[in-house]
Amino acid sequence: MKVDIDMGATKGAASAMLDLEELLATRLLVQGNSGSGKSHLLRRLLEQSAPWVQQVIIDPEGDFVTLAEKFGHVVVDAARTETELTRIAGRIRQHRVSVVLSLEGLDVEQQMRAAAAFLGGMFDADRDFWYPVLVVVDEAQMFAPAVGGEVSDEARKLSLGAMTNLMCRGRKRGLAGVIATQRLAKLAKNVAAEASNFLMGRTFLDIDMARAADLLGMERRQAEQFRDLARGCFIALGPALSRRPLPITIGTVETLARSTSPKLTPLPDAPLDAQDLIFTPGPEEARPVVRRPAPPPPTPTADILAQLSKPRIEVEAPPQTLFPDIDEAERDALINGVMVELLSDPDASFRTVAVLYQDFLVRCRIRRVPGESLALPAFKRRLAVARVGLDQDTAASETWQQALTLSESLTDDIQGVFLVLAQAAVTNAPCPSDLTLARIYGSHSSSRARRLLTYFEERGLLVVRLDFRNNRVVALPDLNCETAPGDPNGPDDLAEDRPAAE
């Protein structure tokens, strides 16, 4: 079905039409300095296409929440856990609801993590729910930065990976990315290069004008025109807009943003007692003045030398404890028992590490485990090993110790998946199914499990192949062993069998 939406007027006063169905297949990039009218353009696009397609807006400043009153969008406050946002995103795709993800009130790193979790949930939706969705990301340079900034590398990788999936692989899943940025130089090139439609607004820096001209296929000497564009005027190019660069002026909108550009307002008349208003504290400001005591006089040099010349006082040895030393073997046995009890819960695989760690500490106190509690990194390591469920002979083997060493190069959240594959290879057990690997990772998505196998293979940790019956075999070259054939589409082996501790 062909749907043309009116974006405004061209230079000749003709309507500037945008082919919505073509936009869903080819994506859109909007660029313009602050005040050039990017948000106004996005609002016009959203309002005109609202009756025709599901919309999801990643809104860093909360400007687009006003769409809820006029067009029925649901506002999702991003002040939630990443797991909650991922699950909400999956239900949004299932029920085809237009939403605004409001990131207002979060710092930059929290916004990046929240957007990554939300986009990841939409990307990982089941194939049955791959309906077309217009995904609009305002201030995209925050979520796909070209270089690292003040945020952590982990948050940057999560956010950049989610934006790359949206623009590079989202089309087959029905996700059509519309990204807006103040500066092309700040936006990751692999994200910007995936757009086939462009709306370039006013910009002043030479590097941004040059990149805009290159994207539009214009000569460098024509790039100067981007400085002369008025607010709300853009140069359009792309299969959904125009086959040649076309100046357009964006039309009016029905809703307003909560924040607007500053306007000059007359100053108030100066009151006669202006000085009293400024220098006299109000009643709520009245506080007793606390004077700092004067600093003590400096110690004479003779006193300092006398103190240094005094003999050092011998410190008495601490008294012998009345309690016996902690038996490390007994302590490890108690901790392993707590891990078995913790993982016996059917929902343990889908609970966050933070929740499991708190539950673990409570159980340790109940069982009176002696010594200091395990730190969080040590707990994550023990949790990954405990989920494997090895017998003592295999756990003590040199091959398994080498597998543990290899797993240390991976992040905490995927060590368990690698160790399960290594355990199957060491014991020559059938290769775990996708559902089993997804449970170990803490997800219900089989596609995510397959992506983890691809990630391990790209790092050279394992090799995946299929036999003539389409059963999967995973070989670990560093360990010189491989799993027995296993059905990748088989049931979840952990649904009934609970893992035991090492």
Automatic annotation (TrEMBL):
<dbReference type="InterPro" id="IPR008571">
    <property type="entry name" value="HerA-like"/>
</dbReference>
<feature type="domain" description="AAA+ ATPase">
    <location>
        <begin position="24"/>
        <end position="213"/>
    </location>
</feature>
<dbReference type="InterPro" id="IPR014588">
    <property type="entry name" value="ATPase_Atu1862_pred"/>
</dbReference>
<dbReference type="GO" id="GO:0005524">
    <property type="term" value="F:ATP binding"/>
</dbReference>
<dbReference type="InterPro" id="IPR027417">
    <property type="entry name" value="P-loop_NTPase"/>
</dbReference>
<dbReference type="InterPro" id="IPR003593">
    <property type="entry name" value="AAA+_ATPase"/>
</dbReference>
<dbReference type="InterPro" id="IPR002789">
    <property type="entry name" value="HerA_central"/>
</dbReference>
<keyword id="KW-0547">Nucleotide-binding</keyword>
<keyword id="KW-0067">ATP-binding</keyword>
<feature type="region of interest" description="Disordered">
    <location>
        <begin position="482"/>
        <end position="502"/>
    </location>
</feature>
<dbReference type="Pfam" id="PF01935">
    <property type="entry name" value="DUF87"/>
</dbReference>
<protein>
    <submittedName>
        <fullName>ATP-binding protein</fullName>
    </submittedName>
</protein>
